[in-house]
Amino acid sequence: MAEVKVLIEGYAKERENGWVASSTTCLITSEGKKIITDPGCNRERLLGALIKEKLTTNDIDYVFLSHCHPDHILLAGIFEKAKFITFDTNLMYDKDSLTEFGEQVLGRDIKIIETPGHVLEHLSLLVITPKGKIAIAGDVIWWIDGEKQNFDINQKDHSQAKGMNMKKLITSRKRLLEIADYIIPGHGRMFKVNK
Ligand SMILES: [Zn+2]
User: What's the CA-to-centroid distance between 4 and ligand 1, angstroms?
Assistant: First the structure.
């Protein structure tokens, strides 16, 4: 089975003319491989979290990117030896070699799922762990700092990003709720799904 550790809990604070925000970053260990999800845009925190795990950027085999927003992907390039699983028409980048990947490219215990809505090209992960099935949702589900984390599948997407589609977003949310025991949001705390 795989293991998931939240290295950085994503945050999002609204400012008068923008945001202070960086995504949730997880470390997954599976079949001897190390995978970073959504490295975010806070370099100091990311490097600090890696040091705590006694890892260097070169120890990471894969970087998973849920979608194109810079608060999720800006630091991807610091992992020089990694392959990149991307939203970009489901292509894996190995330097300049771009190949289509299958949903289990990261191993038997990690499934890559298309979860459009927040933006059209959006991926999430479902990881089978000893604790249960954990969905790393990206921005299918996220909260502003200080907002109460009562999950409602119809809740507003605060970003109102170009290409946001509420109907698709609700379908993606339903799907994650059905298959996961725990959900890790793009910004906010991990929560247990009430079945
Ligand atoms: Zn986003």
Answer: 21
